[in-house]
From TrEMBL:
It comes from Caldilinea aerophila (strain DSM 14535 / JCM 11387 / NBRC 104270 / STL-6-O1). It comes from the Bacteria. This is Uncharacterized protein.
């Protein structure tokens, strides 16, 4: 990326820092669930609206959703048995 003006460099630096912080938060949340085995694969990916966003890889996203559904079913089952 060719950045000519100092304020543009600063904005790009801030954006990079925000992306790094989002990735760190995602990794921390995965660790809270005990899912350290999951590689988030952060990068720029298209979403279902045709936009490109910095986010989890499609594979990681599917795996997270599958694990959350499984966890939800497990918790619901325990609550029904109370």
């Amino acid at each position: 990326m060719n950045v000519e003006y100092p304020e543009q460099r600063e904005i790009h630096g801030i954006a990079r820092t925000i992306r790094e912080l989002h990735a760190a938060m995602d990794r921390a949340i995965l660790a809270c669930y005990g899912w350290d085995d999951l590689e988030p694969g952060h990068d720029f990916y298209p979403n279902d609206r045709g936009q490109t966003r910095y986010t989890l890889s499609p594979e990681a996203r599917r795996e997270v959703l599958a694990r959350l559904v499984e966890l939800n079913l497990e918790i619901a089952g325990r609550e029904r048995s109370l």
